[in-house]
Specification:
With 116 residues, this protein is α+β, with helices and mostly antiparallel strands. It is built from three helices and six strands. The strands form two sheets. The chain has a four-stranded antiparallel beta sheet.
């Protein structure tokens, strides 16, 4: 189990300090971050808390997951690793299919219509 926790369904009114205080009741907190919209600065309703030890993280999940905080039922789970950036589309993976993308291959769309 990791020490970084995903916290979902956070009230839009919650501050990072309030989130940190909540989790400090179960153990020592390294960081507490609420994810915000880049353009508006408004909370997206989820965040991450990193506990000092894995034992503290486990206690936090057991005691906080499913509890109501600021009128919202929190969802707390171990954070999953972030997907690598740059793989948002499968377009690049298929570029070479059907004759290498230059036309004339078995998967060609017709004369002169390979690569665009």
């Amino acid at each position: 189990m990791g020490k970084k926790l995903y916290v979902g369904n956070i009230s839009f009114k919650t501050t990072q300090d309030e989130l940190k205080e909540l989790f400090e009741k179960t153990g020592e907190v390294e960081t507490a971050t609420i994810i915000t919209d880049f353009h508006t600065g408004r909370s997206k309703g989820f965040g991450f808390v990193e506990m000092v030890t894995e034992e503290d993280a486990k206690k936090a999940i057991e005691s906080i997951n499913g509890t109501v905080f600021m009128e919202k039922t929190l969802s707390v789970a171990e954070a999953k690793p972030q997907a690598p950036k740059g793989n948002k589309s499968s377009f690049g993976a298929r570029r070479g299919a059907g004759g290498g993308g230059f036309g004339g291959g078995a998967g060609s769309r017709g004369p002169g219509r390979g690569r665009r």
